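Predict the 3D structure for this chain.
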Amino acid sequence: MATVNKFKIDFIGVAAPKCGSSWVAKVIEDHPQVGFSKIKEPNFFLTNNFFKSPLAKIFNGWQCENFYQYKKIFKAGEKIGEFSPSYLYDTTSANKIKANFPEVKIIIVLRNPADMLYSMYWFKRNSKFREYLPNTFEKSIEKDWFIERGKYSKYLKQFYNTFNKNDIKTIIFDDIIEKPNYVVSDLYKFLEINSSYIPEILNKKINPTMELKSINLHNNLTTVYNAVKKLKLEYLIHKLKFNKIYNKINRQEFKYPKMDISIKNKLLNIYKEEINLLENLINIDLSKWKI
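Done. Predicted structure below.
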């Protein structure tokens, strides 16, 4: 990877799935002082460490392949940055980011791992990744790679060991739901932009779980997508905002059922030690996640 000379990135966001990162990215993008990436999730710093891992099974994204291409995707602004959640699970991404942008600020978005997995399950079940997931959530949590996504501390260590703690802002999903005004103001202060600005989407839901209207249309378009992927033209799909168009045509918001309490308790037991480790690492009270 080429070393960056004059070009500078001010912030990069990483996150676990279904934790509110789309909302966080949008409130940043909406700020008039920010030059956000034109393409959602450029994934420039992902490496083979990620793509060869089981966690890449349900990766849905294009990767910006060179620095010239990466530099071109950003809008002009006083503060420039992007959000690529999957950086979280690439064990070498923090070092690569630091090597190119040593003064960059890191934004992390997390959610109770049990709730994150449940939301992710239903989100992916209604997507092209349905074939990788069992017919029930209970069977999914028997898969090691599925449970692995909730072991945040293991992956966050690379960021806390690489960057100054003052340059890391961790946002918890609970706070987005309970006090969005505070989250936005605090985030803007962290990015050193006008913290009194109120984004239009402050109280709006972003990237909700959807269900398919037509499975046949979905299967046909998936075939087209795979063909485009083989030709290495995925960037066109993102550039033309095909996913946004597709969602309007063939997807509708879906309210999934509540998680069975016995399964929730099972997951709480699985992640009990992990939550304690995470609490110590990020220095945030996560007692709500333990009940």
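Residues 11-209+254-290 form a domain with the Rossmann fold fold (CATH 3.40.50.300).
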